Amino acid sequence: MTTSINIADKCQALELVKYTESNQESYQIRTISVPQPKDNSNDLLVKIHSVGINPFDSMERNGYGHTLLSVTGKIDSELPRILGRDAIGTIVKIGQGKTQEKYRVGDHIWISADPLRLGTFTEYMICTHDECGLLPENYNTKDKWIELTAIPFGMTTAWTALVATGKVSTDRESGLGKKAFLHGSGGTVGLAVISILRYFKWSTIVVTCQGQNQVEELRPLVTEVIDVEEQKEFADELKCTKKGEFDFFLDGVGGAQSEDLAKTILKLNGHFVTL
After folding, report:
1. Over the stretch 168-185, which tens digit does the pLDDT of each residue have?
2. Which of 27, 32, 122, 217 matches a 20 to 30 Å C-alpha distance to 168?
3. Is the separation of the CB atoms in 225 and 218 below 8 Å?
4. Is the CATH code 3.40.50.720 the one for domain 156-274?
């Protein structure tokens, strides 16, 4: 079985050399030539075709996670470093470990890169089998790759929030009779959470968002949409009308007000997860 194809010794990458300071657009990014990344026995070397930019990238550009990177020591937390979490690519080399059982050279995959590793803004990158998956057949065409690039990190974040942290059951009809409240659901993660809950047939999904465009996008997908711009007193109303009703509360906003709302509208053994 082919485990690699010939590639150049160096590749182009986009690296961050300076964080944003005092909320000013003073960050610096540059294009550089870097040696091809080195893999180990369980890694995949991937040629990147398209990458996505999500809110986490902007946060990381502003210095988010710098302390965590320093503590873990998994990668050099000092600048410069390559950012990026989402990508679509083609496997060009496979290690000798268990990765060979699932993937082949030439497979097209999505990537949701571990924030503690170097990112996707490069021509070639190393990833583990835990950070990627095969593209679905109906989307495995070049004209769909750019569209797909917006999904991986948001979807894996949603799955982690629901299943790993929120203990949502993955039985196909486990959501029958259950109610979820999603606070701040207009972005990629929120849409992914809604898709997963719908797949598991959750009976009631109530979401908050901001602005008419998000309302129109979400309305066909959920039970109820609350526009926080129009319904500024929604939290007080919910505390009166929905006390102890929900099995799951996902907080995409943060802060004491969200926690206070969750305490009131969640059932006694309900799950609260904050992003």
Report:
1. 999 999 999 999 999 998
2. 217
3. yes
4. yes
Residue 52 clears pLDDT 60, i.e. is over it: yes
Fold of 10-150: Quinone Oxidoreductase; Chain A, domain 1 (3.90.180)
Query: Where along the chain do its domains lie?
Result: 10-150, 156-274
* End-to-end Cα spacing for the chain: 42
Please, what sign has the CA dihedral across residues 86, 211, 21, 73? negative
**Is residue 65 very low, low, confident or very high in pLDDT (cuts 50, 70, 90)?**
low
Cα distance between residue 118 and residue 127, in whole Å: 9
CA-based nearest residue to 123, from 36, 41, 40:
36
Write the CB contacts of 158 (distance below 8 Å, at least 6 apart in sequence): 189, 192, 193, 195, 196
Predicted local distance difference test score (pLDDT) of residue 4 = 57
CA atoms within 13 A on the CB side of 47: 14
CA distance 229 to 211: 6
Whether 229 shows a pLDDT value over 70: the answer reads yes
Tokens of 273: 């997860």
Residues counted in the chain: 275
Question: 96 vs 42, 100, 131, 184, CA distance in Å?
Answer: 6, 7, 17, 43
**pLDDT grade, residue 200 (50/70/90)?**
very high
DSSP bridge partners of 91 = 46
Secondary element (H or E) of residue 262: helix 256-265
The Cβ of residue 195 has, within 10 Å, a number of other Cβ atoms equal to 13
Residue at 69: amino acid letter = L
Report whether 248 contacts 204 (CB < 8 A).
Answer: no
